[in-house]
UniProtKB/TrEMBL annotation:
<dbReference type="GO" id="GO:0005829">
    <property type="term" value="C:cytosol"/>
</dbReference>
<keyword id="KW-0479">Metal-binding</keyword>
<feature type="domain" description="Class II aldolase/adducin N-terminal">
    <location>
        <begin position="11"/>
        <end position="234"/>
    </location>
</feature>
<dbReference type="GO" id="GO:0019323">
    <property type="term" value="P:pentose catabolic process"/>
</dbReference>
<dbReference type="InterPro" id="IPR036409">
    <property type="entry name" value="Aldolase_II/adducin_N_sf"/>
</dbReference>
<dbReference type="GO" id="GO:0008994">
    <property type="term" value="F:rhamnulose-1-phosphate aldolase activity"/>
</dbReference>
<dbReference type="InterPro" id="IPR001303">
    <property type="entry name" value="Aldolase_II/adducin_N"/>
</dbReference>
<dbReference type="GO" id="GO:0046872">
    <property type="term" value="F:metal ion binding"/>
</dbReference>
<dbReference type="InterPro" id="IPR050197">
    <property type="entry name" value="Aldolase_class_II_sugar_metab"/>
</dbReference>
<dbReference type="Pfam" id="PF00596">
    <property type="entry name" value="Aldolase_II"/>
</dbReference>
<keyword id="KW-0456">Lyase</keyword>
<protein>
    <submittedName>
        <fullName>Rhamnulose-1-phosphate aldolase</fullName>
        <ecNumber>4.1.2.19</ecNumber>
    </submittedName>
</protein>
């Protein structure tokens, strides 16, 4: 039997954390990651007695009984792959908190953003049965742009859609943004969850970004796209006045690539329906 630390889910996570550090998204101990384990992942998990039990208030009921692979508070993503059993752990969510069932050696404990991870999983599972992963990091362009953007979802999202054609395809639900809040609190978790009702990405102003999705690559790609669009936007906005892609252009992208943009963000009133035919339709 493969040791759990050598299982594919752990390898995927350690590859992700190293890649994120390489991108400059996780300075020092910045960032945290969690993943709901499937039955096939659990087959490789030794089922001994819980190593430790912790009490946490306000556990979302729908998460009780789930096993979650999650990074340790204080872990450094640069070298997490060399300290897997210390910097990673598996918790089983209980009504009163959680049991540590694997990892977290040397008295480590789950990330200080545990509330956010548990509540975000619960919220996204209501919307997508296949949801499994939450990734938080300090992607610098996404964070820098939060200093100059208004702190409402539409103001933050629209410039990103307008400067990079694929943005609206990758995140048609837009990006939610919260004003600055204390990290690691139940409050920031509750406010994040409000945003996650409508979209899969949330920026914490003056701090970082989080993505929710079906796997690690999905979350990585979402953040990568937001961060790149934010970089392009900030690099060009002061050097030359430009409008970026118009509502009509974005509408055409949505039609061709069959995505539904977040309601209320674009004005389609001047555009007749069905003006742009999809290539697939044309071929038939
Ligand atoms: P942890 O080391 O507790 O995961 O905290 C890092 C972080 O980014 C907090 O927002
Ligand atoms: Zn953070």
């Amino acid at each position: 039997m493969v040791l759990f630390e050598q299982s594919s889910i752990v390898k995927e996570l350690t590859t992700l954390t190293y890649d994120m550090w390489s991108k400059g998204w996780d300075e020092y101990n910045g960032g945290n990651v969690s993943c709901i384990l499937r039955d096939e992942d659990l087959e490789q998990l030794p089922r001994d007695e819980p190593i430790k039990q912790a009490t946490v208030e306000d556990i979302p009921f729908s998460m009780v009984g789930k096993y979650i692979l999650i990074t340790a508070s204080g872990s450094h993503f640069r070298n997490l792959k060399d300290h897997i059993k210390r910097d990673l752990g598996v918790i089983k969510v209980t009504e009163k908190g959680y049991d540590i069932v694997w990892g977290f050696l040397e008295n480590r404990r789950p990330t200080s953003e545990l509330y956010m991870h548990l509540l975000a999983h619960a919220q996204r599972l209501e919307i997508d049965f296949n949801h499994r992963v939450v990734v938080h990091n300090h992607a610098p362009n996404a964070a820098a742009y939060s200093l100059i953007s208004d702190h409402d979802d539409k103001s933050y999202t629209l410039p990103l859609w307008r400067v990079l054609t694929e943005s609206i395809v990758v995140f048609p639900d837009g990006v939610g943004i919260l004003p600055w809040e204390l990290p690691g609190t139940l409050d920031i978790a509750l406010h994040t969850v409000e945003k996650l009702r409508k979209c899969r990405l949330v920026v914490w102003a003056f701090h970082g970004i989080l993505a929710t999705g079906r796997d690690f690559q999905d979350c990585f790609g979402l953040i990568e796209t937001v961060d790149k669009a934010a970089m392009i936007h900030m690099k060009t906005r002061t050097s030359r006045q430009y409008e970026g892609l118009s509502d009509d252009d974005l509408y055409a992208v949505c039609q061709v690539l069959k995505v539904q943009p977040r309601e209320g963000f674009l004005d389609f009133s001047k555009r007749g329906q069905n003006e742009v035919k999809n290539i697939i339709t044309n071929l038939q």
